[in-house]
């Protein structure tokens, strides 16, 4: 069964990243990179009480992604992996998820840091980041564990590109 689902953006993300090349691959590699999230007027009431959270989850549409592949070579690896085992932007439903630092909210505009999102990205949703809900204490990280070890070894050998 295939059902079409249409979402309406609730806002727009502004960032210094104008093109995919050179944009950090995750908030963890975008330390300090500033951005703003402009929430459209009609949704601003929903921002009430958000300011008490240091981090928020942004869900957005990868609007510059064209098509998808079910097997992709992730940024952090050299071998093809199933797309759902990666965070690649070319996915059947091109939805992005970034946990960013919330600095302040002014007139419906969220000032954030650690942004790995392209400028003018349509925003689908905002949720507060809650470590007890979102950060399992024991988490395995599949192929990434090996990829990280290889990267560390290459770095130690001075072979890291
Ligand atoms: C590997 S993805 C991870 C994004 C998000 N943190 C996630 O896990 O869903 C990050 C890359 O997506 C690309 N990207 C960011 N915003 C995009 C957009 N609106 N459309 C297409 N690609 C985008 C950039 O090249 C960036 O380096």
Could you explain the architecture of this structure?
The protein is an alpha+beta fold and 161 residues long. 12% of the residues lie in helices and 29% in strands. The chain is built from 2 helices and 8 strands. The protein has helices at residues 131-134, 142-156, and strands at 11-14, 34-39, 55-61, 71-72, 81-82, 95-106, 109-113, 121-128. The strands form 2 sheets. A 6-stranded antiparallel beta barrel has the order 1-2-7-6-3-8. A two-stranded antiparallel sheet has the order 4-5. The mean pLDDT is 93. Bound molecules: S-adenosylmethionine. S-adenosylmethionine (SAM) is lined by residues 20, 23-26, 62-65, 75, 87-89, 96-98, 116-118, 121. S-adenosylmethionine binds at residues 20, 23-26, 62-65, 75, 87-89, 96-98, 116-118, 121.
Global mean pLDDT:
93
Fraction of residues in H or I helices: 10-25%
Count every helix, treating DSSP H or I runs of 4 or more residues as helices: 2
Structural class: alpha+beta
Report, as a whole number of angstroms, the end-to-end distance: 45 Å
SSE order, as H and E?
Answer: EEEEEEEEHH
Bound small molecules, deduplicated: S-adenosylmethionine
Uncertain regions spanning at least 5 consecutive residues: none
Shape: globular
Tell me the total number of β-strands: 8
Radius of gyration of CA atoms, rounded to a whole number: 17 Å
Share of residues in strands: 25-35%
Main sheet characteristics? 6 strands, antiparallel, barrel
Strand order of the largest sheet: 1-2-7-6-3-8
């Amino acid at each position: 069964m295939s059902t079409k689902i249409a979402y309406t953006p609730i806002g727009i993300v502004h960032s210094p990243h104008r093109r995919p090349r050179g944009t950090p691959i995750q908030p963890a590699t975008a330390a300090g990179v500033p951005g703003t999230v402009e929430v459209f007027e009609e949704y601003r009431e929903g921002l009430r009480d958000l300011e008490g959270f240091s981090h928020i989850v942004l869900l957005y549409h990868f609007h510059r992604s064209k098509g998808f592949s079910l097997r992709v070579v992730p940024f952090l690896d050299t071998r093809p992996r199933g797309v759902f085992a990666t965070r690649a932007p070319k996915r059947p439903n091109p939805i992005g998820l970034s946990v960013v630092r919330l600095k302040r909210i002014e007139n419906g505009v969220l000032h954030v840091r650690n942004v790995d999102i392209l400028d003018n990205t349509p925003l689908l949703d905002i949720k507060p980041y809650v470590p007890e809900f979102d950060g399992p204490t024991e988490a395995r990280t599949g192929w990434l564990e090996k990829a990280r070890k290889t990267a560390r070894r290459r770095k130690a050998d001075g072979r890291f590109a």
